[in-house]
Design brief:
Layout lengths: L1 H31 L6 H5 L8 E3 L18 E8 L4 E3 L5 E3 L7 E6 L3 E5 H11 L4 H6 L2 H9 L1 H4 L1 H11 L10 E3 L14 H9 L2
Parallel strand pairs: 6-7
Antiparallel strand pairs: 1-2, 2-5, 3-4
Helix pairs in contact: 3-7
Length: about 200
């Protein structure tokens, strides 16, 4: 019986360093995995809530939209903040210095085809009674009708001015007005799957 207890004590004393070594290895491994995936950086998830700065898009002077606008989306470069570390898809840890491009982010843009909002409003205000605004926007039949009826006796001119000013009536080809990119723009709010997803992500 005493021999059994002695062998048990020896076994425990021999396994104690092994247990401590295994515990230390697990702690080091968990600390190494403390770095989050770089995908969270682009999604803006914790702990990368405000961890990057995106460049302003380069604006085309003629269209007043980003130069790389395609299918109503443009892409801008985003630079993670200095000393931000994340894990790449291949498993390696990368630390940003503030100069590297971390990812590209999409920004909405508009499909324009040469119709100026300022010109349309000016024509509607001063020459709407002869249908100049409708001719300009590509509605020749309505323009001719306004011309023959002197803007529907002025009532049609007033209604058209309000509709064009609020951007309810736009170019006939379905494109958007050319409006200064950093100027006053009307944005129609709508609830989509993307809107719902962004709401769910917010704290």
């Amino acid at each position: 019986m005493a021999l059994h207890w002695r062998s048990l004590v020896r076994f425990r004393s021999a396994t104690r360093p092994l247990i401590i070594f295994t515990f230390c290895l697990s702690v080091i491994h968990s600390l190494g995995n403390d770095v989050d995936n770089c995908d969270k950086l682009q999604l803006g998830q914790y702990p990368f809530k405000i961890a990057y700065l995106c460049k302003e898009p380069k604006i085309d002077d003629a269209t007043q939209e980003p130069e790389n606008c395609k299918d109503r989306l443009a892409w801008v470069e985003c630079l993670p903040a200095p000393n931000i570390s994340c894990r790449l898809s291949n498993g390696t840890e990368f630390k940003f210095s503030g100069e590297e491009v971390g990812f590209n982010k999409s920004v909405p843009c508009r499909n324009v085809s040469g119709y100026s909002y300022k010109v349309a409003v000016a024509l509607s205000l001063f020459l709407g009674w002869i249908g100049a605004d409708r001719f300009y926007l590509g509605y020749p039949a309505l323009g001719l009708l306004k011309f023959c009826t002197v803007g529907f006796c002025g009532i049609g001119s007033l209604v058209d001015f309000m509709l064009i000013s609020m951007q309810i009536v736009g170019p006939s080809d379905g494109s958007d007005y050319i409006v200064d990119y950093y100027g006053a723009r009307l944005t129609r709010l709508s609830i989509t799957n993307e809107t719902y997803r962004r709401t769910q992500l917010s704290p």
